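Our consortium's second objective concerns turning raw sequence data into structural hypotheses that experimental partners can test. To show how far this objective has progressed, the report includes one record in full. It was chosen at random from the queue rather than selected for favorable results. The single chain below, 163 residues long, was entered without modification.
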Amino acid sequence: MKTLLIVYHSMTDGARQMAEAAARGAAHEAGVQVQLVPARKAVAEDVLQAQGYIFVTPENLASMSGIMKDFFDRTYYAALDKIAGRAYVALICAGSDGANAVRQIDRICTGWRLRKAAEPIIVCTHAQTPEKILALKVIGAEDLKRCEDVGAALAAGLAMGVF
């Protein structure tokens, strides 16, 4: 059985909805176990035991969230040189463009020598005022479907041995 690890952090619920949608999509694939873990609780052993990854974070101040960065800080060296070649995808819940959060995750994954399985999904909420930034988010059905589809595709690739 292959394991797809989905690590996420969410302050205003948008990234959580995206992570859960990806997990729903992946859950239908026989032979793949989906592990959905909040970034605060994810440990190096989770990373080492998985064969594929989806990293989900909000964009905070033009970067990935601090909690997501903490996850990478805590797990990076324990997994270095042990997970090369495994597949990953990044999902970003952004207030503006999310590009820098993607760059940060891609750079870390390059260091781990992971392979990008699909282009990142960036859902832009256009939250630009303090009130809108801090408000709970509701991700639309079309965007959740994109997250679900990428979860299903990554899981199918794992099951078929493509990744």
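The partners drew two points from this record. The CA atoms of residues 92 and 122 lie 5 Å apart. The chain has a mean pLDDT of 97. Both points have been shared with the crystallography group to help prioritize constructs.
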